[in-house]
Amino acid sequence: MCLQRLLTGAVLVPLFASAQNRSTLPEIVVTPYTTTIVAGGKDTALLKISLLDRQGAPLAANNVVRFSLTGDAQIRSVDGQRPDTAAHLMNGQLWVVLQAGTANGIVRFKVTGDSLQPGSTEIHTIHPGRPHPVTDGPPIAGNAIIREKIIGADISFLPQLEARGMKFYDKDGQPGDVLQIMHAHGFNYIRLRVFDHPEQPKGYSPGKGFCDYGRTAAMAQRIKAAGMKFLLDIHYSDYWADPQQQNKPAAWSGLDFATLKDSVYAYTKGLVAALAQQGTPPDMVQIGNEINHGLLWPDGGITNLDSLAQLLYAGIRGVKDASPSTTIMLHIALGGQNREARFFIDNMLARKVPFDVIGLSYYPRWHGTPDDLQANMTDLAHRYHKYVMVAEYSQLKTVVNDIAFTAPGKYALGTFIWEPLSTWESFFDRSGKATLLLDLYLPIAKKYGVR
């Protein structure tokens, strides 16, 4: 997750944000049911256009909205009718079908309307090509047996919040380490993101270096001391990596592909080995963040599936050479997009990329309805016989956990909520006191046997 989704016009509101920065206009939301299509002149992408009020509730309005499109694609239909550049919403929504052209590239689709916040999305058009396996040897991952269920949280913002002086209090008003507080409320796993050089001028934390290796290592010690496990989320960037941006670290720019691949291996092995040497090996590692459009662009972009597979394999080898028992996740931002999730996983398996867990991001505005999430998780588990979990979410907490712990059957692992200390529906108020939202999790843990 990136803190700001520029292309959708949607912003995650931090705990300390001013209400004056929040628009009062209704917002157009574009939910794509696939964001990768084949550039053969026939493939299509289905988009849902909807309208939300300032609280995020659906609006059953009939506004006129206008469409604009750049890239090699065309509008094939609007609500099943002939293509047009404008249409009326019907009870607050309509459906658009885009059809691919023949060129690789990025299609940008934007929807605007009078007195409405615009919405947009990106569709990547690609030629998949014939797959070439990354190895002829036996798989080095993919056979893990994971016995514990997971209620986890990404709280990578914690060192920044504490640096501002924020303290945390349980429901009884007693101060404490937030990790211990969360553990007492049913959480047993923490996710940490790490950047290469976040202190760079264009990095995640210019001049300060939050989420670098040093702070990640210190957090890993706190996590283990609190009796929890941790997932290491390697962004392979100095800045946020997500489906809209997967930029190389500045130190890696200009490297030829062979050197880039070696760098991925050495960097990953070095990170995991250093954590293991201090007694805190990551229990799970995700190779990249929300990588359904690839990583380390342009070399590892989704238009270069063989190169993407090789880079992923280099990272996986690095993990396994440093910590053989650590499990491997591939994290894709496709909670409700089954067709695209299958496309990605099929292409990685065809290239013999080994992994243990399929991690999904699920934010309703981008990834569909809870029913879409449930259908996707059920299908992925049954189709691939892999562990499946929600690696990021925020809203619909009980609903998402119920789906994640049941839909994949015996392959269900659980969830990681994204940054619940200070964004969206926070577990703690402005004074640091625990809110009722934290109370949701102990019953979930007991219901699904999370320890």
From TrEMBL:
Native organism: Dinghuibacter silviterrae
Signal sequence, renumbered to the chain: 1-19
One Pfam family, short name: Glyco_hydro2_C5
InterPro entries: GH, Glyco_hydro2_dom5, Glyco_hydro_53, Ig-like_fold, Invasin/intimin_cell_adhesion
Name of the protein described by the UniProt record: Arabinogalactan endo-beta-1,4-galactanase
Catalytic activity entry: The enzyme specifically hydrolyzes (1->4)-beta-D-galactosidic linkages in type I arabinogalactans
Enzymatic class: hydrolase
GO biological process, any: pectin catabolic process
Family, similarity comment: Belongs to the glycosyl hydrolase 53 family. Belongs to the glycosyl hydrolase 2 family.
Cited Gene3D superfamilies: Glycosidases (3.20.20.80), Immunoglobulins (2.60.40.10)
